[in-house]
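Long-time lurker, first post. I've been practising inverse folding by hand and with some scripts of my own, and I keep getting stuck on stretches where the structure tokens seem ambiguous. Below is the full token string for one chain I'm working on. Before anyone asks, I'm not after the true native sequence, just a reasonable design that respects the backbone. If someone could post their per-position residues I'd love to compare against what I wrote down in my notebook.
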């Protein structure tokens, strides 16, 4: 990949389902080390855009480039092993321990048992789960917030270049959600990954993003750093920003 080139690059991306356009000519680049938040209402196309990055979906037209190569040209297994993926319900394997859930990708990569064990313990500590306490637990023995922490640890396990977050904190209570948002920011300072983060919460977008891409009707309505996004004049941006005033006055 050329120095300075985007890590992820959407070029004229269109995606249709049953003849209905979900994305309509999406042009969007993600630079190395940034957290680009995809903000929008339900049905705006943000989760679809995320799934196009790891080839869970392929574009109807246009292309998505990862490290300068179209997702159509990647070996899909190789591509997905380069990308950590965190979803709202974590997707943990219920029959496996926390340690085994975190170690799935390193095992597939052929890491030694010693290296895997050290990595699992390192990551559990980094997400606030003491290894001696949590390593052997099953997902059913964890709270929702703890399961999300394990999901983040698993996404980081093989040290992927790119992280995808699909509303990872949306189902959590407000206190736990705030705790995990703070932890996300701390991890970002430590691991410095390129990340795409989907949310419909403008407050979360402003707190976590280095840039915010507001999607509306399958297009980018606004694209700006958080401080500049606060000054956006598009109708959809002002609708989202009005939520801040409503929460403050409610």
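-- Answer (accepted) --
I ran through it position by position. Result:
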């Amino acid at each position: 990949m050329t120095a300075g080139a985007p890590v992820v690059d959407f070029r004229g991306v269109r995606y249709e389902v049953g003849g209905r356009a979900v994305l309509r000519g999406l042009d969007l680049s993600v630079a190395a080390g940034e957290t680009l938040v995809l903000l929008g209402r339900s049905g705006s196309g943000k989760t679809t855009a995320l799934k196009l990055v790891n080839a869970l979906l392929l574009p109807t037209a246009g292309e998505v480039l990862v490290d300068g190569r179209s997702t159509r040209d990647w070996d899909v297994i190789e591509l997905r092993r380069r990308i950590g993926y965190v979803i709202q319900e974590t997707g943990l394997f219920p029959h496996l321990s926390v340690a085994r859930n975190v170690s799935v990708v390193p095992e597939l990569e052929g890491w030694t048992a010693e290296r895997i064990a050290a990595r699992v313990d390192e990551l559990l500590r980094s997400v606030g789960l003491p290894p001696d306490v949590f390593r052997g637990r099953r997902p059913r023995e964890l709270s929702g917030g703890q399961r999300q922490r394990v999901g983040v640890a698993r996404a980081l396990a093989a040290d992927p270049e790119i992280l995808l977050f699909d509303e990872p904190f949306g189902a959590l209570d407000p206190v736990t959600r705030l705790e995990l948002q703070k932890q996300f920011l701390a991890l970002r300072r430590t691991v410095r990954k390129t990340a795409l983060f989907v949310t419909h919460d403008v407050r979360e977008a402003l707190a976590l993003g280095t840039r915010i891409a507001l999607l509306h009707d399958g297009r980018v309505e606004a694209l700006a750093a958080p401080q500049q996004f606060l000054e956006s004049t598009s109708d959809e941006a002002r609708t989202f920003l009005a939520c801040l005033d409503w929460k403050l006055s409610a």
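A couple of notes from the structure itself: The two ends are 49 Å apart (CA to CA). Strands lie at 8-17, 20-30, 35-40, 61-66, 69-70, 83-87, 162-166, 194-199, 211-216, 219-224. Happy to go over any region you disagree with.
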